[in-house]
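User: Here's a chain of 152 residues. Predict its fold as tokens.
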Amino acid sequence: MTKAVADVMTHDPIVVRPETPLQEAIQILAERRISGLPVVDRSGELVGVISETDLMWKETGVTPPAYIMFLDSVIYLQNPGAYERDIHKVLGQTVGEVMSKNPITISPDQPVKEAATIMHQRSIHRLPVIDGTGQVIGILTRGDIIRAMSLD
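Assistant: Prediction complete.
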């Protein structure tokens, strides 16, 4: 029998809102020993995910994009827009300023095998589980999948 995401996901995950102070989200991650949180708007719809990776910008800082000067012109060798986005992450004070937007999601009735494939191919550690109305009803982590494998 094929297991569905709903069978192995963590139900009713802790969520934060975009206006949640960043320090509060950091405390939740540290105290609960989790690596990421879904971010929902006032109606409970998923708008992003904040993870340890997003928070690493606070410690590591940002490197300006490489450029060359040619005839009094600056020619960027990398997209300067990405640099501006990264600066906002470093200076962010709320979850909404630092979170990753447009997260990949999965529905509770999808097979766990499909979720594992998505996570492996995209190198992601968690998938928010949303119902038909866009509400977060769970979260599926790599650990959940490994635990499910151990029960087979």
